[in-house]
Amino acid sequence: MVTMIFLEHIMQETLQDHQTSITIGGRPLCDLRFADDIDLMAGTEEELQELTSKLETVSRKYRMEINKEKIKILVNRSNNHKHTNIWLNGQKLEEVETFKYHGSYICNDGNSGKEIKSQYL
Hints:
This is Reverse transcriptase domain-containing protein. The chain is built from 3 helices and 10 strands. The chain is of the alpha+beta class.
């Protein structure tokens, strides 16, 4: 419980003064959180790099370390976006075409075929 409260403080400080370019239903949205899982969302590569760097800076300030092995970048390809170069502490982060988040597959092309197959076949 204390860890979750501490993580919430880190996220509030990270997102302080951040102006996101993503809106869903007219509401600004730049992150999703569940327990210790954090999803950062951005409309541009520059915005995502800024969020990632700020999260690392704030985490380090409180002596928390981000596990770079667990971080994945997924870019929505439905808008013909190219690959990204997002860095964390001098290390380029891995970009993936799909990943499983809390039991559901998320794909970079917006296709839900993999999720449907995993649930029903």
